[in-house]
């Protein structure tokens, strides 16, 4: 997957609202007609809160690995002595970060206010996510040039990660704070629908 490139943050909001609609539809009629809608809406909203991302971007692990890169890769500029049908082992610098908390889906969804203007793949394993910078260095021991390029890339990516994560979390906060109101509206509409049906049934049963 790619960081903040697999869709917009609205997707996670729509998924939550769809799950809430499913939960409301599964409630017993008596819960809606006779229960406290205020208590019910708070309970449902609390159970569907989205967790904000918390990642310590300054505390990271680094690992240099060799990766086979095809000669057709744009990594090799025109004039490089490579063949398109061959693979060339090149060093890749992987950086691992610990996700302290949060919904991992947010890593792949772009917030509304800020764009992540980089194409960066990432992998998640448990509470760790990893990004990497691919070099043309032919050994695990990087030249100073590639070390400098890698660190400059990382500085840019981390600065942008902070901005995008903060923007995502702000939108999550706003969504979470509005959730009880949305649930309450849905429950009120459901109660009105059920009451109309009940009134009709009562009327049809009068002789």
Shape: elongated
State the major sheet. 4 strands, antiparallel
User: What is the arithmetic mean of pLDDT?
Assistant: 94
Number of strands: 4
**In DSSP terms, counting alpha (H) and pi (I) runs of 4 or more, how many helices?**
4
Which structural class best describes the helix and strand composition? alpha+beta
Strand content: 15-25%
Question: How would you describe the oligomerization state of the chains in this entry?
Answer: single chain
Name the strands of the widest sheet in spatial order.
Answer: 1-2-4-3
Low-confidence stretches: none
Distance between termini? Answer: 65 Å
H and E string? HHHEEEEH
Q: Helical content, roughly?
A: 40-55%
Radius of gyration from CA coordinates: 26 Å
Structural commentary:
The chain is of the alpha+beta class and 207 residues long. The protein is 46% helix and 20% strand. It has a 4-stranded antiparallel beta sheet with strand order 1-2-4-3, with helices on one face. α1 (10-26) runs parallel beside α4 (144-204) and α3 runs antiparallel to α4. The longest helix has 61 residues, at 144-204. The model has no long low-confidence stretch (mean pLDDT 94).
List keywords for this structure.
single chain
In short:
The protein has 207 residues and is α+β, with helices and mostly antiparallel strands. It has 4 helices and 4 strands, in the order H-H-H-E-E-E-E-H. It has a 4-stranded antiparallel β-sheet with strand order 1-2-4-3, covered by helices on one side.
Topology:
Blueprint: H1 10-26, H2 29-34, H3 37-47, E1 54-70, E2 87-101, E3 123-125, E4 128-134, H4 144-204
Antiparallel strand pairs: 1-2, 2-4, 3-4
Helix pairs in contact: 1-4, 3-4
């Amino acid at each position: 997957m790619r960081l903040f490139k697999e869709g917009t943050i609205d997707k996670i909001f729509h998924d939550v609202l769809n799950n809430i609609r499913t939960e409301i539809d599964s409630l017993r009629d008596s819960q809606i007609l006779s229960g406290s809608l205020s208590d019910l809406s708070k309970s449902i909203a609390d159970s569907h809160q989205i967790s904000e991302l918390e990642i310590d971007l300054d505390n990271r692990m680094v690992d240099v690995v060799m990766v086979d890169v095809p000669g057709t890769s744009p990594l090799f500029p025109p004039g490089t002595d490579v063949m398109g049908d061959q693979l060339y082992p090149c060093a890749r610098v992987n950086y691992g970060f610990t996700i302290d908390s949060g919904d991992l889906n947010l890593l792949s969804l772009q917030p509304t206010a800020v764009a992540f203007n980089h194409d960066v793949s990432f992998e998640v394993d448990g509470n760790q996510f990893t990004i990497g910078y691919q070099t043309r260095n032919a050994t695990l021991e990087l030249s100073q040039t590639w070390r400098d390029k890698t660190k400059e890339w990382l500085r840019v990516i981390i600065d942008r990660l902070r901005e995008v994560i903060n923007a995502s979390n702000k939108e999550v906060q706003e969504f979470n704070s509005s959730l009880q109101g949305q649930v309450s509206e849905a429950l009120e509409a459901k109660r009105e629908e059920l009451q109309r049906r009940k009134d009709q049934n009562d009327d049809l049963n009068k002789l």
